Amino acid sequence: MPRENSFSDSDGRSLTPDLEDEGDYLPPESPTYAMSIHDPPDLYTTQTRESARYAVRAAAAASVPKTRFRYAVRKVIALHRGTKVMSRRGVGAEPGIDPRSASADAEYGGIKQECVIEVVDYSAVRSSFGRMTNREFVELMNDPAASARESWVKVRWINIGGMSWDVIKAVSIKYDLHLLALEDVFHAHPRARSKADYYAQHLFLRVLCHELVDLRREAVPIPISLPPSYPPTSSRSETSDDRPAPDSSLHSQRALVQKSASDSSFEVRQIRAAAAAEDERRRMQDAALNALKSGERVNVDVVPMFIFLFRDGTVITIHSTPNLEMTEPIANRVRQFDTILRTTTDASLLVQSLLSLVTEKALEVVNAYQDKIQKFERKILVRPTVDIVRNLHILSADLILHRRTLAPIKTVVYGLRRYDIDRAAALMDASAKIRGAKVAGFMSHKSIVYLADVHDQMEYVLSQLDVIAGIGQNLVDYTFNMTSYEMNEVMRRLTLVTVIFLPLSLLTGYFGMNFDHMWIHNGKGDYYYWIIAAPIMALVLPLFIAPDIMRIVHYLQKRMLTKNVVKVGGVLARLSTN
């Protein structure tokens, strides 16, 4: 019976057979890990069982010309399907990233960066450190014998600084990282909420790290949330010495593959070009906003750190920046044989140390904000200005962002302490629950105890952010209150001048009238003017400044009372000493 969405001939046979149903099907070769079909079987240990079975069958039939031609045609169909799936990546796309698929290679293969990779093996008695490049790390992950842990190794820490598709693909295939976790690594927003996801094979943590930025250093990290804007490349194959040489028909099929990839990727290039233009527009807006906010700011870099914790004692950390400066204190602790990390050889305690490092970095940020708010407070108490209010507005906005990005870390730590076993039990299948299998979480008892300290530190950080934000708002209110008070004082002085001169102006206008029959025009106008003006001023001024007089009297009384109390206290102190 023919399948849906397939072409059929007159007899009902499908003209587009399912590639997985054919025994001699060979999956499209990866651009990063292209391998010979005549390689030993152990090179396929990182692949799925189905892919290895298909590869063996294809290797047996590779010498037949008809089979080679059929393989080339199916390769064209598979590549076409991969580019179609990749072009629909976006809203409603298939969740997760499969590092073994050709479409993932075509979509993310352009993310390349020279990473700093450190592999640390340690136990209570020994430790081993090794730094390597991208190529060396990929070769290590592809070689089962070289990547195997020695018998004395209790914990292996793979610390990756930088984002490069070849490195992440190698480690994801080697350790079977979950597809949804890889999607979070590449597609999550740079300031997405910190979270903890439980999978059957590992625990995945995404934590936002807040670190003070030294403007004297130049660091340009690549954006990890944006897909690369490059056309997908066709799959390439590597031929070994013992592989049969391809004939002219195979060359023509390869040309057909490249032409199909070029035609089907036109829509992909258009979509990515539009996305790149939108990203450029947002970057320009952010740059303009940052230029307006430049000045008295605390420069903080917020970057995500991805942590994978396995039950066998393996910890994988991935940073978006191509350096390992942030985790250097933890590496120094591993080098010392008398630290808790070395004596306990607990991988979950290493994860706890990384979370503690994140909170300590956040505490440094809080201290910087405290110094900045104290500086603004001193300036405002001396002379409040609008420029300080502007800086306080920018500081308050930054504090709101930090508060929203740091608060989820507290939730993650609390979840690891309280619900680790419950979430691990939810991953067990029904058969294991029926057999009464023992449930074990990813975090050990000792790491849970130490996570309480991390929780307390994060609680202190969040409370201090609230305090600093409250102080900043109070300083803004104080500045505007002082401005209003100064304006009221100015208006009060003007009113006082008006009250003083208004009666005098009235009398001046009256006595300045030019009429011959007025009784004041007998040579004594000046005398009568002051006889009338002096009593009026003596009556009006006390009534107007009576509240001020009362405040002055109360102030003098309080000063005298304070001096008397101080004088009596000094006498009593001298008497007590004698």
From TrEMBL:
Intracellular or extracellular location(s): Cell membrane
Annotated spans, Disordered: 1-44, 226-263
Annotated InterPro entries: CorA_cytoplasmic_dom, CorA_TM1_TM2, MgTranspt_CorA/ZnTranspt_ZntB
Swiss-Prot/TrEMBL keywords: Cell membrane, Membrane, Transmembrane, Transmembrane helix, Transport
This protein's name: Magnesium transport protein CorA
GO CC annotation: plasma membrane
Membrane-protein topology: Multi-pass membrane protein
GO molecular function, one term: cobalt ion transmembrane transporter activity
Transmembrane region(s): 494-515, 527-550
Main location (coarse class): membrane
Pfam families in alphabetical order: CorA (PF01544)
Family designation: Belongs to the CorA metal ion transporter (MIT) (TC 1.A.35) family.
